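Sequence design from tokenized structure. All designs in this work follow the same two-part layout: the structure record, then the generated sequence. An example of the structure record is given first.
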């Protein structure tokens, strides 16, 4: 049995900034994958601030996470849509766009989809 592990998102092992200063992803690496905290600034939209980094038509990450603050709207490629806010668990499959709703910063913890999220593909 493995021992305890302590890592802090306040001291991330990696930080990936979004385009135009619209936020960042703080990431810690674990054997089972990454755990991340994304900070999305008002006006952030995946198709404007992450798509130019990853070069895919839509977000191809699957997300399992928890919204700590703010609101985010997710629209699937098939048209299904949902809005998530503080206190909500969110599970979102690959193939979507998303954007911040309102003027409040949105902070999301994710333990599934952030290992390769916003990873620069040049």
């Amino acid at each position: 049995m493995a021992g305890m592990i302590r890592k802090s998102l306040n001291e991330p092992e990696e930080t990936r900034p979004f385009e135009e200063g619209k936020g960042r992803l703080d990431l810690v690496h674990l054997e089972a994958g990454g755990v991340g905290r994304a900070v999305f600034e008002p006006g952030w939209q995946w198709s404007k601030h992450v798509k130019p980094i990853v070069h895919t038509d839509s977000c191809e990450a699957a997300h399992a996470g928890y919204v700590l603050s703010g609101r985010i709207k997710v629209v699937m490629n098939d048209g299904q849509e949902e809005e998530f806010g503080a206190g909500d668990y969110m599970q979102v499959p690959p193939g979507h766009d998303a954007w911040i709703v309102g003027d409040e910063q949105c902070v999301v913890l994710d333990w599934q989809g952030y290992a390769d999220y916003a990873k620069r593909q040049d």
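The mean pLDDT is 95. We note this feature because it recurs in several other targets discussed in the main text.
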